[in-house]
Design a protein that fits this description.
Blueprint (H helix, E strand, L loop, with lengths): L3 E12 L6 E2 L2 E2 L2 E2 L3 E3 L6 E11 L7 E6 L8 E4 L11 E11 L5 E8 L3 E11 L1
């Protein structure tokens, strides 16, 4: 079987308490369940991609949390690239290979926060095999 992906996004994620995670419940403009079911035939997350853009004069360091009963090893975290303060907004993209075990048929929740109070939009794509 080839690779399968799960994407979750959040437009205008407002973090008023730095470090407080919010589950990503969008795919583009559609609202979806925060819990994505791991498809059959896959056992690992092999790549994670994180893209974010802040709303302007804010410093933003995206932190992503993977949680749920699909992760036999427990919660896992990932960092996006930091964005400095700018009046025109900043964007970033991070991609890295991973080796995260997952259990088919179980749920994975993708959440995000920032280490600073900020408003930003974020997309997280996981590729599984």
């Amino acid at each position: 079987m080839g690779s399968l992906t799960i994407i979750r996004t959040k437009d205008q994620l407002a973090i008023s308490t730095p470090g407080a995670f919010t589950a990503l419940d969008e795919v583009g403009s559609a609202t979806v369940s925060t819990a994505a079911v791991i498809p059959s035939g896959v056992s690992k997350v092999v790549n994670v991609q994180i893209s974010a853009v802040n709303d302007g004069a804010e410093e933003t360091l995206p932190v992503v949390l993977f949680s749920g009963n699909a992760l036999p090893g427990g919660d896992t975290y990932a960092l996006g690239a930091g964005m400095g303060a700018s009046n025109t907004g900043n964007s970033n993209y991070t991609s890295f290979d991973s080796d995260i075990d997952v259990i088919s048929g179980n749920s994975l929740t993708i959440s995000a926060t920032s280490l600073d109070a900020a408003t930003f939009s974020i997309a997280v794509l996981v590729t599984m095999q």
